[in-house]
Amino acid sequence: MLNRVVLIGRLTRDPELRYTPGGVAVTSFNLAVNRRFTNQQGEREADFIDIVAWRQLAETVANYMKKGRLVAVEGRLQIRSYENQEGRRIKVAEVVADNVQFLESRSQAGSGSGYNQDYGDNGGFDKNQGNRGPSTDPFADDGKPIDISDDDLPF
């Protein structure tokens, strides 16, 4: 069986960081994801999807992501239910994130994004890998001469 969700969208509000009574970090945020088609008025509609991140990923998301940021979220769909104050059963669908990545640089997001420059322009965060640090473009100097001495060559 497979339960995998991949979303790309913008945060509709700043993430909310909380801690369980056991001290486990949990962050929730909402992602606006555009639909591929337009409505009868020619306007593009969006779906607003609740996202939940746990532990280290929760703290990272809360510290570095702000409203309006373009992000990619990978995770699983979870349906849970609870009883409200009136005794009615309420069902909630949400994505439990395994991986969240920035998809735009700080300059593209605007100076008020709250993005920490120490993580580079496209720093990604994965609960299994932690902070991968600055991402550098290995092809940035493509086409320019490389200064290599004969002693550096293996042949």
Automatic annotation (TrEMBL):
Pfam families: SSB
Biased composition range(s): Polar residues: 107-116
CDD domains in alphabetical order: SSB_OBF
Record flagged with keyword ATP-binding: no
GO molecular function, one term: DNA binding
Region entry Disordered, spans: 107-155
Keywords per UniProt: DNA damage, DNA recombination, DNA repair, DNA replication, DNA-binding
Motif, Important for interaction with partner proteins: chain positions: 150-155
Domain of life (superkingdom): Bacteria
Keyword Transmembrane helix: no
Coiled coil start-end: none
The protein's assembly and partners: Homotetramer.
UniProt-listed HAMAP family: SSB (MF_00984)
Entry-linked PANTHER family: SINGLE-STRANDED DNA-BINDING PROTEIN
Function statement: Plays an important role in DNA replication, recombination and repair. Binds to ssDNA and to an array of partner proteins to recruit them to their sites of action during DNA metabolism.
Protein's recorded name: Single-stranded DNA-binding protein
Organism per entry: Kroppenstedtia guangzhouensis
Lineage: Bacteria, Bacillati, Bacillota, Bacilli, Bacillales
Gene that specifies this protein: ssbA
